[in-house]
Design goal:
Length: 498
Amino acid sequence: MWVALAVILGSLGTLAWVYGEGRLSALLRILGAAAIGLAVGALVVAALVRVLSARRRALRLTALGVAAATALALTVPFALAQRAGELGGRQLTDLEPLRADDRVVSVPGTEAPSPILVLRADGTAQLIAADGTAVSDLGAAAGDAVGLTPDGRWVLLVRDGSTRIAPVDAPAQGTTVDGEPVALSDGVLALRTCDAATCIERGVDPAAPAGEPGWSIDVGPAPSSPDPEGEPLPAPGDDGASLVGTLRSSGILPSEIVRAVAGQGWFWADPATGHLSGRQIAGVDEPCRVVAPETALAQDVPPPVLAVCTGEDGAVTARASADGAPLWESAPTAPGTWSASITRGRAVVSGSSADGAQSGQLVASEAHADWRVPGTEATAGSYRALVGVDGRDVVRIDDAGLVIDDDLVTGETVWSLETEGDDVRGALGAGTTVLIDDRAREAALDPAGARRVRVIDDATGDVVAHGWTVRPVEDLRPVSGGRALAQVDGEVRLLGGR
């Protein structure tokens, strides 16, 4: 009887095991293991029934113990080996969940990792320490402008013509001074104060902004302000952004002081003296928009100031300068209707020529001064999904599931990375790519719905952090320094960092 029962249970268990593995059914796989364990237990009963016939209780307990041990031995090691693992990172318990219309700002290219600024749609703002150990509310409200300095050391809050300046490691210990911020260049913070007649710019030490200014200059009545990076530029002659508007748009203060001088045009200003310095950026009669850079492109490489100038026929010319000296200037585009933007030292126009011969997107940069279609044949072809585009890189997923980062201008591949599963998505920003993909299930006890999150340094393609989660990832934001904010079930974690 016991042998027959063992054969039946073993057969059923083996069928359930094999079928469960073939269909990737964890339930059938576990039921099969349990049935095989019971079959082994029945065989133990058959072997010991004569020896322990007078001790039926001991017989039953022995059989059940062997059955349970066998079932666990066939299941537990496999389940442990196939665990999804942990997402890792630091949980930001004091940070409210991110919403789709909230913005996350960090400064790329700084010596130390930049703190992270969360700008909420309702006007409030929080500052996350670079290592995620603290979250501070900045006391901002609707109508305020909040941003970081380009060195990542100071956080600014502008309200009603005054600026509160605080170190990022002690945001509650700020100092409020008159004026709106213009730029932070070579450790000098330029502030502008205007009345009905004129505007005064002064250079101060951000560590002691209420002290004597290093310099103070009358810059005339309400001079124009540079436009923000990454935003579509208004047509020449249209009202551009204000100082507060530029900071509010980008979240990072410009790193160079540029000034529009009435009757003369756009010029650089020396941060040590406040006086005009270097060659002219754009003439007074030229229909140009000027963008001051926010962050350096690389260590010891001065960021360029870019100007895009539009002629009467709609043709667009771009020019770049650094340290007051010209770097490059493009030939004009074909006449037509073009809209422009400037990001990370490169100028991009979108539109079409008047004769209809050319349409789409063109880019001018330090690599190719004249306008050209972004990329080359290396970036052509069919792609399953676009991860993101910034001024220097485009990250896409090809039909084979390979993630490829190409230089936006040259089309050369910077790095590539394999993925698993069919549902791959991600984001690109602040010099960091973050990817999320399925874990391919190859065995019945593989976790269902496991997601892998990887944080990648765009400059090298190195995966600086990765983790797993079986819970839905609600939000994923790349930040500078090979880091990302990941939101799972309303909890925000800071991943990565060197």
